[in-house]
Predict the structure.
Amino acid sequence: MWFKNLQIYRLPANWDMSAERFEEQLAKKPFHSCGSQDMESRGWLSPLNNEVLVHAVGGQWLVSLGFEHRLLPSAVVKQEADGRAEEMAEQQGYKLGRKQMKELREQITQELMPRAFTRRRRMFAWIDPVNGWLVVDAASQSKAEDVLEQLRHTLDSFPLSLLRTERSPTSAMADWLAGGEAPEGFTIDQDCELRSIGEDKAAVRYVRHTLEGEEVKGHLEAGKLPTRLALTFDDRISFVLTEKLEVKRLDFLDVVRDQIDGEQDDAEALFNAEFALMTGELAHLLPAIVQALGGEIVATPAEAKPDATPAMKVPTPETATGVAADDPPF
């Protein structure tokens, strides 16, 4: 149980949902396979493939949204429709009109739907009700929105906002590269993307390449801005920070993974240990990123209800049980 990407959101300070109530809400919309005429089905699955929809470990929650899609390519429908249209044209003596072709394609879609293969996938979301985080393991905000939309449809009330910081990631990353130094606790790695803000959208990508020296600074002086930068936090977690404040290519280094006893033969115990360890590490990483970006934007009194966030409380080994999805390379 290791997340690969982080889409980061904030729960309001007054969100008082319990794990039991959350379980009851999710149970209203469980996952079911596609019906004979459904192109897609989605619903909540147990993260551990048992009957529990909200998997709680040390006060941290994990939920899983399941998807099933029917694989019926439009090219297959078109091919079948064109073949039938030719036969009908020979019988009738004239070609089918646009409306008739549309109706024929719809008819063929209904006929082929029950026989189409299906493909399943799932997405995970971590909820930290203590510190007000909701994090979706998704490569983009648009994909994470699938989970958020389902949560809005499932829960009676679900106020949520994207994490906002005083400094934009682009501005901060530019300063780090120009100065050749990352903020405290971080080190700059060897992957980076710089993109021009002009109409040409010229881009330069560095992969496993030193980012020190005048070459990168020259691109910055020429007006290119960093949109991705590889970093390592506390020599424990490596990742890529994007201009949208996304964390991608998340990798927990061996110093973290080696804390888990590899001889555990209980799958659930191993799952819980990995989840407890992952959330404990992320509970340190997320506020460190916020601090490196100048702090979190504090809601005004008028915005306090939807956007206010609680003070951070980092879990300790005593409060956790167990041990104290991917973007392509640049």
